[in-house]
Amino acid sequence: MLEISDLKGKSLLVTGGAGFIGSHLVDRLIGEKPERLVVVDNFYFGKDKIRNLSSANTVFPSLKIYDQDATKMRPMKQILRNENIDVVFNLAVIALPVSLAKPKWTYDTNSAISSTLCELLRKDCFKTLVHFSSSEAYGDAEQIPMGEDHSLKPSTPYGASKIASDHLVLSYIRTFGVDASIIRPFNTYGPRQHEGTYAGVIPVTIRRILNGESPVIDGDGLQTRDYTYVTDTADAAVKTCQAKSTRGKVLNIASGEEMSIKNLITKIAKIMNCKKPIVFDKPRPGDVRRFIGNNSLARKLVHYEPKIGFDEGLEYTIDWYRELYATQDKTKSSLQGKPHKSVQRLQK
């Protein structure tokens, strides 16, 4: 029997809430009927990412959005106090591909975000933290499937930053008794995933095919990943927050199924009727060879069960990007230089 903490009537904040997973989490949280819902995002990938929150703004007009760097202690404290926040879902992050070009900045920023939130939690500026980790903390699979007890040997500065952040959250739990849980998603995919510079393999491949180019595989394509559709990841985060049994624990959010990059790109090309041959390029630095997650703890503690199968989710994703690129010029012209009406910025 799960001990459930109701989010109805609570004040909730999502850092990185205008991003890929964050915006889907915002959509999912609206269903819990919170009193207040707040997004903090620094729009690192551009102000046009405000489009990710358009449906949330329609359904939840009082959604408040702050254009704010989550590493900054004073403005974050002010937001938390002003909005009387109960729960923070921390998804603010500099992504893995960025760490290959800007390793120190990525590590320092990701660690600082977690440090700021842990300290504000310790000072009772909010009550509960749900922190997003990453399967990149594990590095290459040494045991299959990869459970939460798998060794932590990251292949990238991004992975190292996630380990540091996880250990920091766990240390605050042990030392100060703060109320926090950690989820460790494997490879989340779906609509709204960043499609520009530093994009992941799925949006990059879709974009190339839509542009009439050949799909590209970095390396031999035999490296594997464990893919979860984004709404399943968002649902797992909400259930983790609600279940008191998750406090002080790390939960893998994974499908438990393995997919090679070669098979993935072949599937995308087939769905999109791409006739161009696949091109093989040099391996990406720090690319993990094998990923497949053990989700048994999440199944036990929060009754986690992925609802969207991979092929179904991939078709949804491709359809979304088709529509995005079909209207991209119009979208850019309407959004360029126009901040969203509900976006606020605090003085640093």
Description:
- With 348 residues, the protein is α/β, with parallel strands linked by helices.
- The protein is 40% helix and 15% strand.
- The protein has a single domain, classed as Rossmann fold.
- Strand 5, helix 6 and strand 6 form a beta-alpha-beta unit.
- Helix 1 packs across helix 8 and helix 5 packs parallel to helix 6.
- The longest helix has 20 residues.
- About 2% of the residues have low confidence.
Give the helices and strands, then pairings:
Blueprint: E1 11-15, H1 20-30, E2 36-41, H2 54-59, E3 64-67, H3 73-82, E4 87-90, H4 96-101, H5 103-122, E5 128-132, H6 157-176, E6 179-185, E7 187-189, H7 201-210, E8 216-218, E9 224-225, E10 227-229, H8 230-242, E11 250-253, E12 259-260, H9 261-271, E13 279-281, H10 296-302, H11 310-326, H12 328-335, E14 343-344
Characteristics:
Rossmann fold, 40% helix, eight-stranded parallel beta sheet, 348 residues
**What's the order of the H and E elements?**
EHEHEHEHHEHEEHEEEHEEHEHHHE
- CATH hierarchy class name: Alpha Beta
Distance between the termini: 45 Å
| Mean pLDDT value | 93
Q: How is the main sheet built? A: 8 strands, parallel
- CATH architecture, by name, is 3-Layer(aba) Sandwich
Can you describe this structure in just a few lines?
The chain is α/β, with parallel strands linked by helices. The chain is built from 12 helices and 14 strands. The strands form 4 sheets. It has an 8-stranded parallel β-sheet, with helices on both faces. Strands 7-10 form a two-stranded parallel ribbon. A two-stranded parallel ribbon has the order 8-13.
